Amino acid sequence: MAITFSNFLTQVRNYTEVDSNVLTDAIIQDFIRSVELNVAGKVDYDDLRKYATSNFTSSNRYITLPADAVIVRSIQVIEGSGNRIFLEKRDTSFISEYNNDGSTGTPKYWANWDDFTALVAPTPSSALQVQINYIIDPPNFTSTNNTFLSTYQESMLLHGVLAEAFRYLKGPMDSTIYIKQSIMKRYKILLYNKWAEEEDQSMMMEYLEYKFLLLLLTHKFIKENNYGNNNKRNL
After folding, report:
1. Which residue of 70, 180, 201, 226 is 20 to 30 Å from 60, comparing CA positions?
2. Rounded to a whole number, what is the largest CA-CA distance in the chain?
Protein backbone atom coordinates (compact mmCIF):
# COMPACT_ATOMS: atom_id res chain seq x y z
CA MET A 1 0.00 0.00 0.00
CA ALA A 2 1.36 3.39 -0.99
CA ILE A 3 2.25 5.83 1.78
CA THR A 4 0.01 8.87 2.09
CA PHE A 5 1.44 12.32 1.56
CA SER A 6 0.56 13.29 5.14
CA ASN A 7 2.35 10.25 6.58
CA PHE A 8 5.37 10.93 4.39
CA LEU A 9 5.65 14.48 5.77
CA THR A 10 5.38 13.08 9.30
CA GLN A 11 8.20 10.61 8.61
CA VAL A 12 10.48 13.40 7.39
CA ARG A 13 9.79 15.52 10.49
CA ASN A 14 10.27 12.55 12.80
CA TYR A 15 13.66 11.71 11.30
CA THR A 16 14.83 15.32 11.41
CA GLU A 17 13.26 15.95 14.85
CA VAL A 18 11.60 19.21 13.87
CA ASP A 19 7.99 20.25 13.45
CA SER A 20 5.93 21.92 10.75
CA ASN A 21 7.02 25.37 11.90
CA VAL A 22 10.53 24.54 10.68
CA LEU A 23 9.84 22.17 7.80
CA THR A 24 6.57 23.40 6.35
CA ASP A 25 4.54 21.39 3.85
CA ALA A 26 5.72 23.72 1.08
CA ILE A 27 9.40 23.27 1.97
CA ILE A 28 9.15 19.47 2.04
CA GLN A 29 7.21 19.61 -1.23
CA ASP A 30 10.19 21.41 -2.78
CA PHE A 31 12.51 18.69 -1.44
CA ILE A 32 10.29 16.00 -2.95
CA ARG A 33 10.32 17.70 -6.33
CA SER A 34 14.11 18.05 -6.28
CA VAL A 35 14.49 14.32 -5.62
CA GLU A 36 11.96 13.38 -8.31
CA LEU A 37 13.86 15.43 -10.88
CA ASN A 38 17.20 14.05 -9.69
CA VAL A 39 16.01 10.44 -10.04
CA ALA A 40 14.50 11.12 -13.46
CA GLY A 41 17.78 12.62 -14.64
CA LYS A 42 19.73 9.53 -13.58
CA VAL A 43 17.32 6.63 -14.19
CA ASP A 44 15.29 6.15 -17.37
CA TYR A 45 12.56 4.17 -15.62
CA ASP A 46 9.47 2.79 -17.33
CA ASP A 47 6.93 5.03 -15.61
CA LEU A 48 8.32 8.04 -17.49
CA ARG A 49 8.01 6.46 -20.94
CA LYS A 50 4.98 7.20 -23.08
CA TYR A 51 3.90 6.58 -26.66
CA ALA A 52 1.65 8.60 -28.96
CA THR A 53 0.39 7.86 -32.47
CA SER A 54 -0.87 10.26 -35.10
CA ASN A 55 -0.50 10.74 -38.84
CA PHE A 56 1.81 12.76 -41.02
CA THR A 57 0.23 15.44 -43.14
CA SER A 58 1.01 14.86 -46.80
CA SER A 59 3.61 17.33 -48.14
CA ASN A 60 4.21 18.75 -44.64
CA ARG A 61 7.67 18.01 -43.22
CA TYR A 62 6.75 19.02 -39.67
CA ILE A 63 5.04 16.94 -36.99
CA THR A 64 3.72 18.24 -33.70
CA LEU A 65 5.12 16.57 -30.60
CA PRO A 66 2.88 15.51 -27.68
CA ALA A 67 2.29 18.34 -25.22
CA ASP A 68 3.79 16.39 -22.30
CA ALA A 69 6.94 15.28 -24.15
CA VAL A 70 10.20 16.35 -22.51
CA ILE A 71 12.61 14.14 -24.47
CA VAL A 72 11.85 12.27 -27.69
CA ARG A 73 13.40 8.81 -27.52
CA SER A 74 12.53 7.71 -31.06
CA ILE A 75 10.05 8.11 -33.92
CA GLN A 76 8.61 5.25 -35.96
CA VAL A 77 6.76 5.23 -39.27
CA ILE A 78 4.02 2.57 -39.43
CA GLU A 79 3.39 1.48 -43.00
CA GLY A 80 0.05 0.21 -44.26
CA SER A 81 1.27 -3.38 -43.96
CA GLY A 82 2.01 -2.80 -40.28
CA ASN A 83 5.76 -2.73 -40.86
CA ARG A 84 7.52 -0.33 -38.47
CA ILE A 85 10.51 1.76 -39.50
CA PHE A 86 12.61 3.68 -36.98
CA LEU A 87 13.67 7.08 -38.27
CA GLU A 88 17.32 8.01 -37.75
CA LYS A 89 17.93 11.12 -35.70
CA ARG A 90 19.93 13.88 -37.38
CA ASP A 91 20.64 17.58 -36.96
CA THR A 92 18.40 20.12 -38.72
CA SER A 93 21.30 21.11 -40.97
CA PHE A 94 21.52 17.52 -42.22
CA ILE A 95 17.76 17.49 -42.94
CA SER A 96 18.00 20.74 -44.90
CA GLU A 97 20.94 19.52 -46.98
CA TYR A 98 19.49 16.05 -47.53
CA ASN A 99 16.13 17.35 -48.70
CA ASN A 100 16.93 20.78 -50.09
CA ASP A 101 14.74 20.18 -53.13
CA GLY A 102 11.66 19.24 -51.04
CA SER A 103 11.47 15.66 -52.32
CA THR A 104 8.59 13.57 -50.96
CA GLY A 105 8.51 9.94 -49.91
CA THR A 106 8.58 7.81 -46.78
CA PRO A 107 10.53 9.68 -44.09
CA LYS A 108 13.91 8.24 -43.10
CA TYR A 109 15.31 10.91 -40.79
CA TRP A 110 14.07 13.25 -38.09
CA ALA A 111 15.42 16.18 -36.08
CA ASN A 112 14.24 18.38 -33.22
CA TRP A 113 12.94 21.64 -34.67
CA ASP A 114 11.82 23.25 -31.41
CA ASP A 115 10.23 22.24 -28.12
CA PHE A 116 6.95 21.40 -29.81
CA THR A 117 7.88 20.23 -33.30
CA ALA A 118 9.99 17.62 -35.08
CA LEU A 119 11.25 17.84 -38.66
CA VAL A 120 11.42 14.82 -41.02
CA ALA A 121 12.95 14.00 -44.39
CA PRO A 122 12.00 13.21 -47.04
CA THR A 123 8.78 15.19 -46.76
CA PRO A 124 5.91 12.70 -46.26
CA SER A 125 4.19 11.81 -49.52
CA SER A 126 1.08 10.50 -47.73
CA ALA A 127 -0.63 10.52 -44.35
CA LEU A 128 1.36 7.57 -42.98
CA GLN A 129 0.85 6.68 -39.33
CA VAL A 130 3.65 7.76 -37.00
CA GLN A 131 4.44 6.74 -33.43
CA ILE A 132 6.43 9.02 -31.13
CA ASN A 133 8.18 7.36 -28.19
CA TYR A 134 9.09 9.87 -25.53
CA ILE A 135 9.84 10.68 -21.90
CA ILE A 136 7.58 12.84 -19.75
CA ASP A 137 8.35 15.12 -16.85
CA PRO A 138 8.26 13.02 -13.64
CA PRO A 139 4.87 13.14 -11.89
CA ASN A 140 4.80 15.06 -8.62
CA PHE A 141 3.93 13.33 -5.31
CA THR A 142 1.34 15.53 -3.60
CA SER A 143 -1.59 15.27 -1.22
CA THR A 144 -3.81 14.33 -4.16
CA ASN A 145 -1.41 12.33 -6.31
CA ASN A 146 0.67 9.23 -5.60
CA THR A 147 3.49 8.42 -8.00
CA PHE A 148 5.63 5.45 -8.98
CA LEU A 149 8.37 6.61 -6.59
CA SER A 150 6.04 7.14 -3.63
CA THR A 151 4.36 3.78 -4.26
CA TYR A 152 7.25 1.48 -5.20
CA GLN A 153 10.42 3.39 -4.24
CA GLU A 154 9.33 5.01 -0.98
CA SER A 155 12.65 4.38 0.76
CA MET A 156 14.65 6.00 -2.03
CA LEU A 157 12.32 9.01 -2.08
CA LEU A 158 12.51 9.34 1.72
CA HIS A 159 16.31 9.19 1.89
CA GLY A 160 16.61 11.67 -0.95
CA VAL A 161 14.27 14.09 0.83
CA LEU A 162 16.14 13.61 4.14
CA ALA A 163 19.40 14.52 2.41
CA GLU A 164 17.76 17.73 1.19
CA ALA A 165 16.31 18.38 4.65
CA PHE A 166 19.61 18.03 6.54
CA ARG A 167 21.31 20.28 4.02
CA TYR A 168 18.58 22.83 4.67
CA LEU A 169 18.65 22.52 8.50
CA LYS A 170 22.43 22.98 8.83
CA GLY A 171 22.86 21.29 12.22
CA PRO A 172 26.13 21.03 14.25
CA MET A 173 28.98 20.46 11.82
CA ASP A 174 30.23 17.06 12.98
CA SER A 175 26.72 15.67 13.41
CA THR A 176 25.52 17.08 10.10
CA ILE A 177 28.48 15.64 8.19
CA TYR A 178 27.97 12.16 9.58
CA ILE A 179 24.18 12.10 9.20
CA LYS A 180 24.20 13.64 5.73
CA GLN A 181 26.85 11.21 4.49
CA SER A 182 24.94 8.24 5.91
CA ILE A 183 21.68 9.31 4.29
CA MET A 184 23.30 10.15 0.97
CA LYS A 185 24.98 6.75 0.86
CA ARG A 186 21.68 5.00 1.43
CA TYR A 187 19.95 7.18 -1.17
CA LYS A 188 22.65 6.49 -3.78
CA ILE A 189 22.56 2.75 -3.16
CA LEU A 190 18.79 2.70 -3.65
CA LEU A 191 19.16 4.87 -6.74
CA TYR A 192 21.77 2.56 -8.26
CA ASN A 193 19.62 -0.47 -7.45
CA LYS A 194 16.76 1.08 -9.41
CA TRP A 195 19.16 1.96 -12.23
CA ALA A 196 20.30 -1.67 -12.29
CA GLU A 197 16.69 -2.80 -12.79
CA GLU A 198 16.43 -0.64 -15.89
CA GLU A 199 19.87 -1.33 -17.38
CA ASP A 200 21.81 -4.42 -18.38
CA GLN A 201 22.74 -6.28 -15.18
CA SER A 202 26.12 -7.50 -16.36
CA MET A 203 27.27 -3.96 -17.19
CA MET A 204 26.30 -2.76 -13.73
CA MET A 205 28.17 -5.32 -11.61
CA GLU A 206 31.63 -3.84 -11.99
CA TYR A 207 30.30 -0.32 -11.37
CA LEU A 208 28.37 -1.34 -8.24
CA GLU A 209 31.39 -3.20 -6.87
CA TYR A 210 33.41 -0.01 -7.30
CA LYS A 211 30.73 2.06 -5.51
CA PHE A 212 30.58 -0.49 -2.68
CA LEU A 213 34.36 -0.34 -2.26
CA LEU A 214 34.18 3.46 -2.21
CA LEU A 215 31.44 3.25 0.42
CA LEU A 216 33.60 1.01 2.64
CA LEU A 217 36.60 3.31 2.32
CA THR A 218 34.50 6.36 3.18
CA HIS A 219 33.05 4.59 6.21
CA LYS A 220 36.57 3.63 7.33
CA PHE A 221 37.69 7.26 6.97
CA ILE A 222 34.76 8.54 9.05
CA LYS A 223 35.38 5.93 11.76
CA GLU A 224 39.11 6.63 11.95
CA ASN A 225 38.52 10.38 12.21
CA ASN A 226 35.72 10.01 14.76
CA TYR A 227 33.22 12.10 12.76
CA GLY A 228 29.91 12.26 14.54
CA ASN A 229 30.77 9.67 17.20
CA ASN A 230 28.99 11.74 19.84
CA ASN A 231 26.05 12.62 17.65
CA LYS A 232 25.10 9.44 15.80
CA ARG A 233 21.43 8.80 15.25
CA ASN A 234 19.71 5.62 14.26
CA LEU A 235 18.49 6.36 10.81
Report:
1. 70
2. 75
- DSSP β-bridge partners for residue 142: 145
Torsion angle of C-alpha atoms 213, 214, 218, 221, degrees rounded to 10: 70
CA distance 99 to 118: 15
Q: How many residues are there in the chain?
A: 235
Reading across the β-sheet that carries 69-78, which strands appear in turn? Answer: 49-55, 129-136, 69-78, 84-86
Domain span at residue 97 reads 57-127
Is 109 found in the same domain as 216?
no
Bridge partners of residue 104, in order along the sequence? 123
pTM of the model: 0.66
Give the number of domains in the chain: 2
| H helix runs in the chain, sequence order | 5-16, 25-42, 92-98, 148-152, 154-169, 173-198, 201-224
